[in-house]
Amino acid sequence: MKYLSLSRLSTLLLVTSIGNISTGYAEELPAPVQALANQGLTIHGQFEAPGGMRGYGASVQGQDMAIYLTPDGEHAIVGTLMDDQGNDLTEAQLDEHVRVPLEAQTWELLEESHWIQDGDENAPRVIYTFTDANCPYCRQLWQQSRPWVEAGEVQLRHIMVGILAPNSPALAATLLGADDPSAALHDHSNGESLSASAQPRDIEEQVYTNNQLFEELGLYATPTSAFQRKTDSGNLRIDRIQGLPSDERLIEMMGSESP
Fold first, then answer.
1. CA 255, CA 249: separation in Å to the nearest integer?
2. What's this model's pTM, rounded to 2 decimal places?
């Protein structure tokens, strides 16, 4: 199984394909910008722009973009602004005013999903990973992560989904509904046989909600793991790996060499 790292576009797709995210700009918009909002663009924030213009960060259908309002306030230009040296003046603004706040909301959605804790709750690094009980690669990732988890450096939060086989939803519900979900996942990931058992409706709905999140994020493989990294500017960004990570990417995801 290969991994897929996020490009700038797929990073945005991760955070803007979610149906229940609504990040609107609170202040009244100039008429040309409002007209674009009426056509389906979401306006996220305003930033300073050269030449007497005002800039607005926006997105639509997974595509981020900048809108530049002309000094007279009568026209809006959608595109990339370049200086006389050919430098892109738009990219950094999109990062700050669109991607960073949207990714922060995506992280909140992951936090609010239904997951099983694997590791010390006070571990300095948290990784969310979408896990299917029928996925051999998920069990392999569980094994590979033991050094970091057992050293108290990483907490894995397994978002249980049921997508790979007809009994996957029932197995996910069985693990989520166990008396000790962490112990049940530990035993299953360590090779113990797991049989589905009837669960209350609210547990079944937790699996359904996790499946919806998996789909809305545009994911296609288990495990898919999401983790935060800090940029040079100090912003927290989300990176993800779909499938089993390579040795190099595993170290990147865990945040250090094996303890």
1. 10
2. 0.78
